[in-house]
Amino acid sequence: MLPNMHDADPIPAEARIEIDRLLQSGDLFRYTAPQDAPVALLEREFSAFMGAKYALAVSSCSAALFLSLEALNLPKGGRVMIPGFTFAAVPSSVIHAGLVPVLCEVGENYRIDMADFAARLPQVDAVIVSHMRGHTSDMDAILTLCAKAGIPVIEDAAHSLGTTWHGRKIGTLGRVGCFSFQSYKLVNAGEGGILVTDDADLVARAVILSGAYEHAWTKHLSPGDNTAELEQAFARWQNKLPLYNLRMSNLSAAVIRPQIPHIDQRVASGRRNHDQVAAILSQSPWIEVPAKLPPEERAPDSLQFNLTGLSDAEVRAFVAAAEAEGVKVQVFGLSRDNARAYWNWQFLPEMPDLPRTRAMLMRACDTRLPARLTSADCDAVAAILMRAAEQAATPTRAYGT
């Protein structure tokens, strides 16, 4: 019998001591302690894990994206390119920042169509690359084109903690990288996000915008480090920026911090599970799992695949057959009001026509594949998906009679 694949991962037991201490003290606000508050410690530990100079923990990845756009000081009404396959929070963050989302095509492998990207690039002021469900687009080409055009790149790495590109950690390739700690991500705090960057001026602006009023930014200076560059940046922006309340609480940080040492093992287990199931599914004539790009080492916590040669009705029959055996599958373009199908973003000021992206989304499937699954669990999941595809196909095609 399959375990419940849709439960979030449990919080490590070592978090409980710190959580109990915080509950006893009531010290949940990140700026109460003179220094070394749990949120401040999280920022230092996460930036060290990522190999980045600075980190800012906030209330969500959406908040991190919004603050990144605001901190770049882009012209209001400016245009920001995003992939047509992403989560609704990404275009929302662009609009909240007073900017206009410009969507580009995404191919059958869930990655940015580089020809369409290059064609739209001269008309935008910034780029957000969503490594959607951990699938990395051609970052060599994207970074080269954007550097030549002088356009900043934000990495939406909500699903990509632990993924690498040429051995470098995703989220550290662009000007700023944003991560999620929502329950269905690799690190689970229910809600929460963090941004990382090597740009002192950008992080100083983001810290103040996030809600560091008066001189609370002094608690973002790490004792013993050379903080002159950062102090100068904070002083430059003191009282010059509007404040948003997008801070993370100490309680969330206490839940997150003990999970950081588990990231590498979760990545290894998630990759093992993904590759095991993908190898079995590749034997089906109805299922195609896109291959990773050569420079990419993924950190998957879920599985994406395309159904091929099936009608809409047969795709829905596949979903129903899999769910009947305990594996829930969503088809991004067929699931009602799916927040990853761009045509449901009716708040967009400009609704694009992206035929390649639309066609992909109508057959692209997604199912959770938690790192905690055993090899036997993975075999069972793959068998269910294989049976569901065979049952969904018409008898004539499935059995050749």
TrEMBL record:
GO terms for biological process: polysaccharide biosynthetic process. Signal peptide: none annotated. GO terms for molecular function: pyridoxal phosphate binding; transaminase activity. Keywords: Pyridoxal phosphate. It comes from the Bacteria. The modification N6-(pyridoxal phosphate)lysine is found at K185. It holds the Pfam family DegT_DnrJ_EryC1. Belongs to the DegT/DnrJ/EryC1 family. This is dTDP-4-amino-4,6-dideoxygalactose transaminase. It comes from Antarctobacter heliothermus.
